[in-house]
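SEQUENCE-TO-STRUCTURE ENTRY
===========================
What this section holds: a protein sequence and its matching fold, both as plain text.
Question of interest: how does this chain fold, as expressed in C-alpha cells?
***
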Amino acid sequence: TTWAAEKEHGVKVVSPDRFHLPAGDLSLGLSQDWASPLPQVTRALIIVHGRLRNAQTYLQSGEDAAEHAGVGATTLVIAPQFLNDSDVKRNHLDNQVLRWRGNDWMAGEPSVGPGAVSSFGALDQIIKHLGNRTLFPALKEIVV
C-alpha cells in the first residue's frame, strides 16, 4: 500500500482501544489492558507510526521485540494512532475519535476534531497516565 493511497482512502485497520482525553478519544493499540492495575509492568514502550498511520503494525513490532528480549510480560507497548478525516469516514468511526488534517500530526499540529489537542499533547497525556502509581506501581522506565 502506498502512502498516497492511505492518505486518500484511509487506513484499513483502526486500533481497537481508546484513550479518553478532554478534546476527544485517541485511537491506540495496547499490548495489555491498562484500565486495570498492571503490577508486573516495569517498562512502557510508546511506539509512534509513520505516514501510513498503521499503528497496529507498529504495536505488533513492539510486542515482538519485547518478547524477543524476554520482557514481554513486564513491558506495556502503547501505539497511538493519529487518524485523519479519510480514516474516520472509511471506518465509520464515531464523532468522539480524534482526527488530524492529513499528516499534520507529525509536526505536532492540533487535531481538527472533535476538540483540539496537539499530537505532542496527546503523547504527554499518555505519559501522564503512566504516572498513575495505582495502575502502574512498578513502572520504572518509559521508552518513546
User: Anything to note?
Assistant: Residues 8 and 73 are 38 Å apart (CA to CA). The chain has one domain: 3-143. The mean pLDDT is 95.
